Amino acid sequence: MSGIPILDPVEAYALWAETYPAQAHNPVMRAEERAMLGLLPSDLRGITVVDAGCGSGRYVRHALARGAARVHGVDISPEMLARAAKALAGVDTASRVDLVQGDLEALPLPDDMAAMTLCGLSVGHLDELEPALGELRRVTQPGGRILCSDVHPTGHALGWLRDFKAGGQRFAARHTPHLYSDWHAACLRLGLAIERVLEPMLDPIDIPDGAHFDRRALDLPVALVFQLRRLPIPLPGPLP
Prior knowledge:
By secondary structure, the protein is of the alpha/beta class. The protein is 28% helix and 26% strand.
């Protein structure tokens, strides 16, 4: 895949949004989504949910389907937010959704607003992990939970790209791998307890017949999925 232009995420999703499906649309996303939904409570009635980096709104719709009282979707890309709004247009519960443009490192939401915060496959677009995790913590109530996923760093090491086609040309969105050790250190500093870590694998049934892909992907985890809990008080100062 050498020679493919690597774009800033805002630029990439401006191009990608027109054809970006409103659901998990490739084997990696389906593996990641199975893991995330396995951790997401089946009953969210009475719960306010934040979906940070909501993209086309797939987790917004999952939260609504599980009865969430209010869902706040935030994404940096106005084009992807428009895609999410279009996908929600025929959903009866769409009146319980607020979509707003914003950065993962500066979410335009008040403190302590959500009992459940979601962030699917977005933090890898950022160079640094801790500022985004700090914002996810800030908007989550003390004792609340955060479900957060990223492409597994193993894939990045093997040269996999988050690529797409637009106007007949192939592009990729910039992605920075964040190791488990990065997550552990950031969570410790921020006062986030790591309760569960999943490393989902591909399901061969999701791979279309005749698909061209790295066969090593069948033997490796393709995503990192974290269940975090916000502790009342973050640890002071940097780690030694």
